[in-house]
Amino acid sequence: MDLVRLSWKNIWRNRRRTIITLTAIAFSIMLVQALHNLSFGVYAGMVDSGVRAGSGHIAVYRNNYLESRDETLYFKDGSLVDDISQINGVEQVLPRLYIPALAQSSRESRGVMLIGVDPDRERQVNPFLKTLPADGMIRSTDSRDAVVGTRLLHELQIRPGQKFVVTAQNEDGTLHSELLRVRGVVNSGMKDIDSSLILVGLGRATQLTGNSGSVHELAVILADAGLEATVHRQIAAQFAQGQDILAVSWEEAMPNLANAIKLDYASQKFIFMIILLIVAIGVINTLLMSVMERMREFGVILAMGSRPMTLRCMIMLEAVILGLLAAAIGTVLGSLATWYLVAVGIDLADLVPETLEFGGVVFDPVMRASWDPAWMLRIAVYVVCLTLLAAAYPAIKAGRTTPVEGMRHH
Amino acid sequence: MSLIELQDVSKIYRLGSQEIPALTGVSLTFEAGEFAVLAGPSGSGKTTALNLIGCLDHPTSGHVIVNGLDLGTASKKALADFRLQNIGFIFQSYNLIPVLTAAENAEFTLMLQKVPKPERRAKVRKLFVDLGIDGLENRRPADLSGGQQQRVAIARAMAADPHVILADEPTANLDSHTAEELLELMRRLNREQATTFIFSSHDDRVIAQARRVIHLQDGCLADDLTISK
């Protein structure tokens, strides 16, 4: 305890230097914590938007469908939708049938991806459909209503309310056509989707393919993304032994999004490492200067009978105190910055007028942070450890001096 | 057995390829309770001899035996522990720790000995009264005069009840009146508590106060006089 008190007094010998060092470390912690929380929030938003419009937090497929996208790999959902909906934490289960098709108007034709959906379930979670007016939504699963991507509508040179025909291969190998009517228009902001998307009721879609009651995908939306692992296990337990149906996480179902986030976060980690390296250099500089200034005093302390290890402990304690203080101040500042970024965020709308697409997902131009307290604590602990590591050389140097050498210093 | 024995001790410092002899073949013994001065001009080897007696340095040849321990055979850690238990130091420029109060400075060796706080507080309070610096316990060294700082340094050296106190030019930075007072104080402590004092000085007024005067000249023992008073 006495050594702690002495170390505390030592770090305040040069008040200005200590305050500058503390500020630099605390500011770095704030920067790393706030940047991480901002990314955490943006990524969470992207994942949420991606899973709701895409394959869900967990997706259920026939084996190999994910790799091959072979439209013959459908499965009868039977009671699966209801069974999975019963699982605690599941917000919605969205059955979908994906059909490559040809869309034709009286003027143009285009290759499209026709998706059969349960309109009531889909509208509750799909961000593309949530914004549609009530009269722009598919009315029933068997209706001829279609929701069409805005670019596709333009390319087919048709308008809402007008008819068009889609042709797809039936289960028996023949071509089958269905007449549809444009009910609503989706403007996702993503070129690929807006130029190829057609949503129809699941019943109407199965009439095209002739495989009634079948789906390619069950997109499971969770109330809390943190429950993914638990729910995943429970869904997997629903499948009978030998049934070639599997549940996959969104990372596997949407590798583009997962990889884009990983790559972006990896580059951020690199920046974090550089920031922490600068912190370490700052701490080494401060402690080394402080040690060099006190060599004479160390000589006296050693002469009085202190062991070199006591001196080393004293320097390490000074580093721990410095690190803990900086971690506490930095975390308070990091929390304030995160609070601002959660409440207000950063609006990029004026800087980037176009739609922002990342990893196949459109994200909100207002970037908002999310709290990640575990990670904030981890970075604070890292900084304390880094400070300790940075103190090792000055501490060893102090411990190596002899009383006579020390007392010769001026 | 003598408290301190120097047996044919030599010390040579190396500066690059140059060898500088600081002590040459010095043999001395000190008994418990002595009040001795190592006298001689600058460069005569006084500080080197004190450093060797205080286990702060190793002789190039010969043996230094303090309280039965041959310092040449002891490890760095053992020497540190030995100094802590047996030797007190008083330095020319006081060398108090500036961030500690006078009382905390005096308690420092007791803290290293892991003496409980109330016990060391009580001991230092008594020492401060004995040394005439009571009331200055909470002052920092920067707020004390040279004489007061040196008294705190004496308290620090005395606190752990060492067998011997080594003082390197303890009065060199003090005015003659304060130096006189301080010498009288050390002599009183020597008399009343039988603490052995060995100090170095080249000041004739200080040398005149000692009961034994050891003259060093160019690193050699020139004279060893015991003065009866």
What does this molecule look like?
The complex is a heterodimer of chains A (410) and B (229). Chain A is of the alpha+beta class and 410 residues long. Chain A has helices at residues 2-11, 15-53, 65-68, 80-85, 119-125, 127-130, 150-156, 191-194, 202-209, 228-236, 250-253, 255-293, 295-303, 308-343, 373-400, 403-408; strands at residues 58-62, 75-76, 90-104, 109-117, 145-149, 163-169, 175-186, 197-201, 214-215, 217-222, 245-249, 346-347, 357-358, 361-362, 366-367. Chain B has one domain: P-loop containing nucleotide triphosphate hydrolases (Rossmann fold, 3-Layer(aba) Sandwich). Chain B is an alpha/beta fold and 229 residues long. The model of chain B has no long low-confidence stretch (mean pLDDT 90). In chain B, helix 3 packs across helix 4. Chain B has helices at residues 46-53, 76-86, 102-112, 117-130, 146-159, 176-193, 204-207, and strands spanning 4-15, 18-30, 35-39, 61-66, 69-70, 87-90, 164-168, 196-201, 212-217, 220-226. The A-B interface holds A 2, 6, 9-10, 12-13, 296-297, 300-308, 310, 402-404, 407 and B 51, 54, 56-57, 76-77, 80-85, 87, 89, 91, 95, 97-100, 108-109, 111-113, 117, 156, 160.
SSE topology:
The complex is a heterodimer of chains A (410) and B (229).
Chain A lengths: L1 H10 L3 H39 L4 E5 L2 H4 L6 E2 L3 H6 L4 E15 L4 E9 L1 H7 L1 H4 L14 E5 H7 L6 E7 L5 E12 L4 H4 L2 E5 H8 L4 E2 L1 E6 L5 H9 L8 E5 H4 L1 H39 L1 H9 L4 H36 L2 E2 L9 E2 L2 E2 L3 E2 L5 H28 L2 H6 L2
Parallel strand pairs in A: 4-8, 5-7
Antiparallel strand pairs in A: 1-10, 1-11, 2-9, 3-4, 3-6, 3-10, 5-8, 6-7, 12-15, 13-14
Helix pairs in contact in A: 1-14, 2-12, 2-14, 2-15, 12-15, 14-15
Chain B lengths: L3 E12 L2 E13 L4 E5 L6 H8 L7 E6 L2 E2 L5 H11 E4 L11 H11 L4 H14 L15 H14 L4 E5 L7 H18 L2 E6 L2 H4 L4 E6 L2 E7 L3
Parallel strand pairs in B: 3-8, 3-9, 6-7, 7-8
Antiparallel strand pairs in B: 1-2, 1-4, 4-5, 9-10
Helix pairs in contact in B: 3-4, 3-5, 4-5, 5-6
